[in-house]
Design goal:
Blueprint: H1 8-34, H2 36-42, H3 54-76, H4 78-104, H5 112-145
């Protein structure tokens, strides 16, 4: 990835967010696929959402794995970056909004918001920031070539 004309702080933030989203989502997805029962028992708050269902956990694990791969591929493929990151971010944002909706309608207590933030809301926010950065960067590069 060429950051030659990028502010160093911005470049560091982009790299950190990609590493977080790509690494966390990929590893979490693998964990869900390899040992869904351990994932169910170890991740805070998951047991509060209902009974153990290995099929459902593995389904979501595949999604998480693919989202992590999308962030990694987008990092190394600038021409595909916007599409990969935007698609992943749509799912992450919908997932985060669903968690807020559960609080809004009384399914969950407001105390779940800070508990879920690192694994649910933060990846969505990082995805939004990364996608907006990629769009801005793509436009700037097109203008520079014009």
């Amino acid at each position: 990835m060429d950051f030659s004309r990028e502010n160093r702080a911005v470049a560091a933030a982009v790299i950190a967010m990609v590493i977080f989203n790509g690494g966390f989502l990929l590893l979490n997805g693998l964990f869900m696929l390899i040992d869904p029962l351990a994932w169910y028992e170890l991740v805070p708050g998951v047991t509060d959402t209902g009974f153990f269902n290995q099929h459902f956990i593995r389904d979501i694990g595949m999604i998480q794995l693919f989202l992590g791969v999308a962030f990694g591929l987008g990092f190394v493929n600038p021409e595909r970056r916007i599409g990969l990151w935007a698609a992943a971010t749509v799912w992450l944002s919908a997932h985060a909004l669903f968690h807020f909706w559960e609080v809004a309608v009384g399914i969950c207590a407001p105390s779940v918001i800070p508990r879920d933030f690192p694994a649910v809301t933060m990846p969505a926010l990082f995805g939004i920031l990364l996608t907006l950065w990629a769009i801005r960067r793509s436009r700037a590069q097109k203008l520079a070539l014009a």
